[in-house]
């Protein structure tokens, strides 16, 4: 029964979270957006104390059930492990916990959060790893299927589906997603929960608490026949049938061991007597210091609280125009609601949910080593529309705080810069004014290039105090391949 309940709940969570990342219409967020806020690390960074308290109480009461039901990366590993068991049954063995590696990775993770080194956080955080895989590998497949349905519906004059453009946001992010997927697949296929119990910082932290959980998997020594089926089916490698012990810090309460035991020797309930008598006689080991576990878990919470298809543009539907090339910005652009580059660096885990949800094709993963896979903005395929605030609605960590439409229209994330040598009125001798006509805040005015000659070509003049950095001017500028006007980012956002 325990295993069936776990599989049912895990399936619901996995389907909901996967849909959340692959959906491009915004429908999934309205229905299952709360699942992202239930992720442990994201709740800690967002200082969502209600969720943090719920997950801690759940772990103390039931053990590391979070890793089997709520964490999408844990569920993904279970899927690969299940496929491995189909190829070869009874494939697992017991192994001792590699404590120095587990706590070492946790320490490194805490230090990188404090230092704002996003690259390490992105590569170690489980929810972010799943998000990177889902956004870069699963969403294009989902979009392709949608486009097939849209093409079929079009033949019947139906608009039930609409075409979604598939494009490569970042080659670096795609390569990382492929490597991560292959690595997790191989580890889970061969050894089950190796990643969870040796590398994952969330698993290590929750494992500290699950040592003293109220409900645990434990042996009934009188019924055990030492058949070893429980050990051979434990994907966490935490059951030693010889000493009748279950390492609760690594057990993810999957229920597989209970379901395969033919003698009813394993139970999931409160074991007030602690370890079995035989285990006390034969193991003779001392549990790791509780003080160290408490200090490390407290450090994570404390430091988190302190850190807080190729686009073809057509001219009148007749002539194909050369694609734009992204400018070299001295300061990268971060989304409205992120407050500052520092807030983004400290809170963002690079899960890429905001990127997958962006309807204007503005957000893409950063290739900067210090902020790898965190969202940055580019206006080659669209601009940040003042009426859109979807990225701020879906962010689970507080890296992009919720922002109202009216506040977004007055938030300056950067300012436009005019490049004289690229401007069409000067290079081609034709009238333009595209940037001024389409500026949503009226920050651009066309003025004579020669102040003393009213007949001279008119060029844009930017009012930096009024510009909000939305990028409409950069995106709609007809100059190719480099725009004659582009947006330079601000380290700290401000109101205009």
How would the blueprint of this fold be written?
Blueprint: H1 2-22, H2 27-32, H3 34-37, H4 40-45, H5 49-62, H6 66-69, H7 72-87, H8 99-115, H9 118-124, H10 126-155, H11 171-191, H12 194-198, H13 201-210, E1 216-219, H14 229-232, E2 239-240, E3 245-246, H15 256-260, E4 266-269, H16 277-282, H17 290-307, E5 313-315, E6 319-321, H18 341-347, H19 353-357, E7 363-365, E8 375-377, H20 390-394, H21 405-408, E9 411-418, H22 424-427, H23 434-438, E10 444-448, E11 458-462, H24 472-476, E12 485-495
Antiparallel strand pairs: 1-4, 2-3, 5-6, 7-8, 9-12, 10-11
Helix pairs in contact: 7-10, 7-11, 8-9, 8-13, 8-17, 10-11
Walk me through this protein's architecture.
The chain has helices at 2-22, 27-32, 34-37, 40-45, 49-62, 66-69, 72-87, 99-115, 118-124, 126-155, 171-191, 194-198, 201-210, 229-232, 256-260, 277-282, 290-307, 341-347, 353-357, 390-394, 405-408, 424-427, 434-438, 472-476; strands at residues 216-219, 239-240, 245-246, 266-269, 313-315, 319-321, 363-365, 375-377, 411-418, 444-448, 458-462, 485-495. Strands 1-4 form a two-stranded antiparallel ribbon. With 496 residues, the protein is mostly helical.
């Amino acid at each position: 029964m325990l295993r069936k309940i776990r599989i049912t709940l895990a399936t619901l969570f996995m389907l909901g979270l996967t849909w959340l990342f692959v959906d491009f219409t915004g429908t999934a967020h309205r229905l299952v957006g709360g699942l992202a806020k239930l992720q442990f690390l994201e709740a800690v960074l967002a200082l969502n104390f209600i969720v943090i308290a719920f997950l801690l109480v759940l772990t103390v009461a039931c053990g590391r059930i979070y890793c089997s039901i709520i964490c999408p990366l844990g569920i993904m590993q279970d899927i690969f492990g299940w496929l491995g068991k189909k190829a070869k049954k009874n494939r697992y063995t017991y192994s001792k916990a590699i404590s120095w590696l587990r706590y070492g990775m946790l320490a490194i993770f805490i230090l990188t959060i404090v230092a704002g080194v996003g690259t390490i956080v992105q590569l170690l955080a489980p929810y972010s790893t799943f998000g990177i895989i889902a956004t870069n590998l699963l969403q294009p497949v989902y979009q392709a299927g949608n486009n097939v349905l849209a093409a079929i519906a079009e033949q019947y004059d139906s608009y039930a589906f609409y075409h979604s453009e598939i494009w490569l946001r970042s080659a670096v992010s795609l390569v990382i997603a492929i490597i991560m997927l292959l690595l997790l697949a191989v580890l889970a296929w061969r050894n089950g929960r190796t990643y969870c119990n040796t590398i994952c910082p969330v698993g290590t932290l929750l494992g500290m608490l699950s040592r003293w959980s109220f409900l645990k998997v434990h042996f009934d020594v009188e019924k055990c026949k030492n058949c070893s089926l429980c050990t051979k089916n434990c994907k966490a490698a935490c059951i030693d049938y010889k000493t009748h012990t279950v390492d609760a810090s690594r057990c993810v309460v999957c229920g597989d061991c209970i379901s395969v035991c033919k003698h009813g020797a394993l139970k999931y309930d409160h074991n007030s007597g602690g370890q079995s008598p035989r285990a006390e006689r034969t193991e003779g080991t001392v549990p790791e210091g509780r003080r160290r576990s408490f200090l490390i878990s407290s450090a994570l919470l404390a430091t988190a609280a302190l850190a807080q298809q190729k686009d073809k543009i057509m001219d009148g539907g007749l002539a194909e125009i050369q694609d734009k090339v992204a400018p070299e910005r001295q300061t990268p652009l971060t989304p409205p609601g992120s407050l500052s580059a520092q807030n983004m660096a400290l809170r963002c885990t690079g899960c890429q949910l905001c990127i997958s949800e962006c309807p204007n094709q503005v957000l893409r993963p950063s290739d900067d080593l210090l902020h790898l896979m965190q969202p940055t903005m580019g206006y080659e395929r669209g601009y940040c529309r003042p009426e859109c605030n979807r990225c701020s609605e879906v962010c689970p960590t507080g890296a992009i705080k919720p922002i109202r439409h009216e506040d977004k229209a007055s938030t300056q994330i950067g300012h436009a810069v005019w490049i004289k040598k690229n401007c069409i009125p000067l290079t081609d001798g034709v009238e333009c004014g595209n940037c001024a006509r389409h500026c949503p805040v009226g920050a651009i005015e066309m003025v004579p290039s020669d102040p003393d000659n009213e007949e001279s070509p008119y060029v844009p003049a930017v009012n930096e105090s009024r510009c909000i950095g939305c990028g409409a001017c950069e995106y709609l500028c007809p100059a190719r391949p480099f725009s004659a006007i582009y947006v330079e980012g601000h380290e700290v956002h401000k109101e205009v």
